[in-house]
Amino acid sequence: MTAVRAMLQRDLRLAWRRRGDLLLPVLFFVLVASLFPLAVGAEPQRLQSLAPGIVWVAALLAALLALETLFRDDFADGSLDQLLLSPGSLSALVGAKVLAHWLVSALPLVLLAPLLAVLFRLPDEAMSVLVVSLLLGTPVLSLLGAVCVALTVGLRRGGFLLTLLVLPLYVPVLIFAAGSVATAAVGASPAAHLYFLAALLVLAATLTPFAIAAALRIGAE
């Protein structure tokens, strides 16, 4: 636990030093989501029907934009080799790295979601479901994306391959997360969608740290 805490604090400090880079996914998320009303018009019903998909696609693209640097800086400066040689649990250490990545790249999107919900004129029930869906879904995006980043970390031009690997894995999260908001917007219960997202989060948090550790060993060779 001491090593995990130290890893989390290290990554958060490094992220704070490069806080200019952290603004890029956040600005991308806001710009992509806010440009759609200009294109489709300001009709309230149309905005409400399109809002779940728009916000979640913007969040997915922002998460994809922030993924590439998850392990690449550590690979470039040799920190990843030290991590692989560490006597501690590699799966726990990479779990701490993914948690730090989520805190600095995805949590701001969750905090900004209510503002976008107001922009799209979502009802209060749908606004709260949007926040909950982002809280459940964005960690899954980070965990699944970390597996693909670990597989491509040793490649010089792995960005395109990373996109091909990660987008099919993101589709179920996108469908059920956007579906939960759309269901709440029409007054129905979004519980089934949110339960599925919660199950995905439990599975991802349980299994992907081991997959990330194995992928790092393979990708670093």
Task: Note down, in words, how this protein is organized.
This protein is mainly α and 221 residues long. The protein has helices spanning 2-17, 19-40, 44-67, 69-77, 79-84, 90-105, 107-119, 124-152, 159-185, 191-219. The chain is built from ten helices and no strands. The mean pLDDT is 83. The chain has one domain (2-219).
What is the topology?
Blueprint: H1 2-17, H2 19-40, H3 44-67, H4 69-77, H5 79-84, H6 90-105, H7 107-119, H8 124-152, H9 159-185, H10 191-219
Helix pairs in contact: 1-6, 2-3, 2-7, 3-8, 3-9, 6-8, 6-10, 7-8, 8-9, 8-10, 9-10
Radius of gyration: 18 Å
User: What is the helix fraction of residues, given as a range?
Assistant: over 70%
Q: How much of the residues is beta strand, in percent?
A: under 5%
One letter per element, helices H and strands E, the order comes to HHHHHHHHHH
Question: How many structural units, i.e. domains?
Answer: 1
Uncertain runs are none
The biggest sheet, with number of strands, parallel, antiparallel or mixed sense and barrel status, is: none
The overall pLDDT average reads 83
What general outline do the C-alpha atoms trace?
elongated
SS content category: mainly alpha
Write down how many β-strands occur, each being a DSSP E stretch of 2 or more residues: 0
Main traits of this protein?
mainly alpha; 10 helices; elongated
What's this, in brief?
With 221 residues, the protein is mainly alpha-helical.
